Amino acid sequence: MLQVIGLDPGFGAIKVAALALDGELRQLSLPSSVGVGELDLGWLSLGKLGRRRPQEQPHVVAWNTGNAEEGSDGRVNYLTGARVEEYTRVVERMDFLRLADGPELRALLYTALGLLLGSGNHDLALMLGLPVEVMADRMLARNIRDGLRAWLLGTHALNLDGEAVTFTVAQLEVLAQPAGAFFAWGLDNVGQWARETADLQVPVGICDIGFNTLDLFSVQGGRVQGRFTGGDTVGMRRAAELLAHTIKSRHGVTLSLQQADALLRERRPNLATADGMMDLSAPASQARAAATGAIIAFLENRWGNGRQFRHLLFTGGGAEALRTDLLRHYPHGIILPEPVTANALGLLRYGRRVFAV
After folding, report:
1. CATH number of the CATH domain containing 29
2. Is residue 190 in some structural domain?
3. Structural domain contains residue 219
4. What percentage of the chain reaches a pLDDT higher than 90?
5. Which side of the chain, N or C, has fewer Cβ within a 10 Å radius?
6. Is residue 8 part of a domain?
7. Burial readout 332-348 (b: 16 or more C-beta within 10 A, e: otherwise)
8. What is the per-residue pLDDT for 53?
């Protein structure tokens, strides 16, 4: 039996959602940090000094690349998820073609699916979300979809954290990421419309604030409204870049964008440097304010005050981070429940309708 997966391959985190055979909803968000490396540090340790608290480690994923020069069996170990930068250099690609293929995308997707599905064999149908800018460019959208199908359709055997995982992708379709948020809001887990019928006819605006993208999406009567739909790379990455630049110039410390983004989300961000422990509250607040200003300016340019929408939905990790500012400017808007994984949930629900499982 085919298992439908909703997949949102964000630049800040990859999100997946599925319904187990017992009907349990499973959702997962994995930081989009990836690099080639090993967790095994040999005998390196501090002996018995200090307390040893269990800490979250990166996941280790490997598969047969077919290139014997890379190892005896053609395998390379990739570290993915949290704390990757503590073991190896993080690969940070922010171009849209990264969404089509590449070892970094494969490592992240394999990890996310492996964690969601568990060991064993699985037959899958994927409903995958792409940014509005990509979907609005017919040729780019087709190239990315075809690139994904070229390597994803078929059987994949991998090793994740020492466990063998095998899955076969039988079908793959793509949809705009914020359309997933619309379906998370409107559909139930079997893919049926769960709101009042009138809500299908009224104008609905969706704002999806991701790490590298800001997507605006508007629908009415089952049709996309082009006037109020568009995208830009004005996501939370701007704040992370600004904070990372400030830390580099003031303290000489280089951070990955994922590390800077994590500091932005802390209530009291601190960083250990050669000058001591630095309180980053002020530069983090300045970076968030700069990103907020750019996002609100983009929103106001496209949507004005947003009063043309009967329902105004905010989603994405940036929506949670900027909740107070967004609702102050758009008091009739709502932040969707679990906004980080809302797109993946909606893609799952729509996928169950499309793939007729």
Report:
1. 3.30.420.40
2. yes
3. yes
4. 64
5. N
6. yes
7. ebbbbebbbbbbbbbbb
8. 55
